[in-house]
Amino acid sequence: MQLNGTHREVVVIGGGQAGLAMSHRLTARGVDHLVLERERVGHAWRAQRWDSFCLVTPNWQCDLPGFPYPGDDPGGFMLRDDIVAYLQAYAASFDPPLVEGVAATRLRPRDGAFEVTTDAGVVTAEQVVLATGPYQVPNVPRAAERLPAAVTQLHSSAYRRPAQLPEGGVLVVGTGQSGCQIAEDLHIAGRRVHLATGSAPRVARRYRGRDVVDWLDEMGYYAKPIDSFADADAVRFRANHYVTGRDGGRDIDLRAFARDGMALYGRLSGIGEDGVLHFADDLAANLDAADAVSEGIKDGIDAHIAARGVDAPTEPRYTPVWTPGEPVRELDLAAAGITAVVWCTGFGRDHRWIELPLFDGRGYPTHRRGVSTVPGVYLLGLPWQHTWGSGRFCGVGADAEHLAEQITRHRRGGLEVAWLSGTTSSTFPVDGWQPTRTVA
Question: Domains in the chain, please, with CATH?
Fold first, then answer.
């Protein structure tokens, strides 16, 4: 498809759940727009998740605008292929103006509007929504270059199944959601797993008769806005709690893994040229901190039950099933029989294609509830964009509706874009807020 000369009121870049939610709300308001998707709908779920992957939040939280979860297992956890099918069905439900297989390669101002260069031609728009998400470039530390050539290395986005890796032990680096679930996947398959832990917190799957997500939703946690926190910046960049929806859902307890034969270590602090790994002496602290977060969430649930007089069964608290002994500070890969490393070290952003004064010193887009500091440019689908639910199926719809309101209020003629024509001033008439370089 050739797009040269195409002009729309709004161009939405990214056709995942955020971009589709945005399109649904713009369609409802009659806003002329186009959605550009580099791959296919559901690509990130299809291409960057392992075979046994499933949601860690219950299916009922899949509540995109106009398309609540359609299945018969609201308390279950959709598998990878089911998630892709859900997104494809969502797109089919309202037939968005979606162009798949077209990548945006440049975004810049042009004649009081915006020019989007794609591999199918140049598109112009009066306003732009960036719905590309935060997970763009696999993050592998430079220390990985020091591993022996004989060791197979994969980022979590390339991991699919245990049989993909050579015979022998596997080192998993990182204990966020992906690291813990991949370590479990390998452990269940009977592989000898070595796990370098980090500071990610954990949460129980169920407590006092309900899924913890159900309790947190009832308590209003997913709707709590980011600017209600005194340390909003720190909250925005915290790791997610680890838990799993596998086999109907259960806790992920690293202590239980260790009890059952998995080798746990502190944070990976270095790699020697001789293939010797070095670890920090923080394993016990990492496990204790993760448990404390989980138990603190239970404290909150207990208080909620007591305050509301909820009829809920009592339940004993968690008792650690394993305690670390003397810390292991070094590990020789060859001596331990480790033949593969899976880097579960997250993703970085690649915004080099965006030629707008949009980012702070860390490369994070400056915005308030998705309304950026560049008039006419919006963000959607970021974790903690406005609430804890923003980066999830349950919350992206509310953010999309908010942005649709802003977009329709500031269509061409009401949007002041003096900066685009070369002046140094700019006004931002959205709810009386003036732009700053500080993330709200």
Answer: 6-136+349-421 (3.50.50.60), 139-346 (3.50.50.60)
Over the stretch 159-213, which tens digit does the pLDDT of each residue have?
999 999 999 999 999 999 999 999 999 999 999 999 999 999 999 999 999 999 9
What single-letter DSSP state applies at residue 239? P
What percent of the chain clears pLDDT 70, i.e. is strictly above it?
A: 93
3-state secondary structure of 438: coil
Nearest to 318 by CA among 297, 342, 303, 336: 297
DSSP-derived pairing of the beta strands 113-118 and 104-110: antiparallel
Residues 33, 55: contact at Cβ < 8 Å?
no
Q: Rounded CA gap, 393 and 58, in Å?
A: 10
- Interior angle at CA 282, CA 280 and CA 288, nearest 5: 165
Cα–Cα distance between 373 and 356 in angstroms, integer? 10
Burial class (CB in 10 A: 0-12, 13-18, 19+), 401: middle
Q: In terms of DSSP H, where are the helices of 149-282? A: 177-188, 212-218, 232-236, 254-259
Q: Which residues of 103-139 are buried (b: 16+ CB within 10 A; e: fewer)?
A: ebeebebeeebbbbbbebeebbbbbbbbbbbbbeebb
Q: Above 60 in pLDDT, residue 37?
A: yes
Contact 26, 10 (CB under 8 A): yes
Q: What is the pTM of this model?
A: 0.91
Phi, psi torsion values for 124, nearest 5 degrees: -115, 155
CB-based contact 279:327 (threshold 8 Å): yes
- List pLDDT tens digits, range 358-410: 999 888 999 999 999 999 999 999 999 999 999 899 999 999 999 999 999 98
Instruction: Specify the DSSP class assigned to residue 430.
Output: B
Q: What is the Cα Rg of the chain in Å? A: 23
Q: How confident is the model over 310-356, as pLDDT tens digits? A: 999 999 999 999 999 999 999 999 999 999 999 999 998 899 999 99
Task: Provide the 3-class DSSP secondary structure of residue 68.
Answer: strand
User: In a 3-state reduction of DSSP, which class is residue 331?
Assistant: strand
* Angle between helices 80-94 and 17-28 in degrees, nearest 10: 20
Give me the pLDDT at residue 412, please. 54
